[in-house]
Amino acid sequence: MDYMKLEEKLSQFKGAANESDLQKMFEELAPAFLYGGYIQVRKEYQIFIRTVELYFHSEKEDGIHDPIVYHRNGRDIDYLPYFPLMTLNAHASGFDITFENETFEYRASALIRSYEVKNKEGLFLKWEKNKDGKYMFALSPDYAFNTQSTYLYTLLNGFSLGKDNGIYWVDSPRKQSVAITEKTRQNVFKSESEFEYIKSNAQCERRWSFNREEIV
């Protein structure tokens, strides 16, 4: 496994002109998110990415287009400035770690689709219904992971991943012994327009979702 730091890997990512090359790049990048470390939330929590969905949208006319991408030109506003590398972007589907590039004119991001949360005592936080019927993060001594990506807002804020903000990425590579599973992204459909997301009834066939079966 390549133990290059995540920020370094993302800074070297330059996109691709065709989907075959982009698929290979994503396959090489996914282990860095799944096995390369975790998000430290102040001194309280560690968030490990278990399933990551990757997104790529070129702002060029002849580039690879992914109309479902939230942070791009022409979706909600004509022009959006590019995010700095490894910015947390909160949106209606959850949280992205972004790696956009203004020079090469593309938007790219990693959506945290499922994840484990451990507190400073090493207990897992599981999003579940308590005895009063209220859903919330509850402590569990047993292994647990969460698939409710939108509820990360209870733990994260929309800051760049930097120590000054108290929320930052920690490079802590772990050994990978099980192959990463590739699949299509959840609730992503083919668009009826190349430049505007208009949901069709057909599932998007891009296998840009990567899952880790091993526990942390």
Short description:
By secondary structure, this protein is mainly β. Helix content is 11%, strand content 34%. It has one domain (6-211).
The main pleated sheet reads as: 8 strands, antiparallel
Q: What is the 3D shape?
A: globular
Portion of residues in helices? Answer: 10-25%
Distance between the termini: 17 Å
Structural class: mainly beta
What is the count of β-strands?
12
What count of structural domains?
1
**Overall mean pLDDT:** 93
Characterise this structure.
The chain has 2 helices and 12 strands, in the order H-H-E-E-E-E-E-E-E-E-E-E-E-E. The chain is mainly beta. It has one domain (6-211). Strands 1, 2, 3, 4, 5, 8, 9 and 12 form an 8-stranded antiparallel sheet that branches. Strands 6-7 form a two-stranded antiparallel sheet. A two-stranded antiparallel ribbon has the order 10-11. The model has no long low-confidence stretch (mean pLDDT 93).
Task: Fill in the keyword field for this structure.
single chain, 216 residues, mainly beta, 8-stranded antiparallel β-sheet, two-stranded antiparallel sheet, 2 helices, 12 strands, globular
Q: What is the fold's blueprint, element by element?
A:
Layout: H1 6-12, H2 19-35, E1 37-41, E2 45-58, E3 88-91, E4 94-98, E5 106-119, E6 124-129, E7 135-140, E8 167-171, E9 181-183, E10 189-191, E11 199-203, E12 209-211
Antiparallel strand pairs: 1-2, 1-8, 2-5, 2-12, 3-4, 4-5, 6-7, 9-12, 10-11
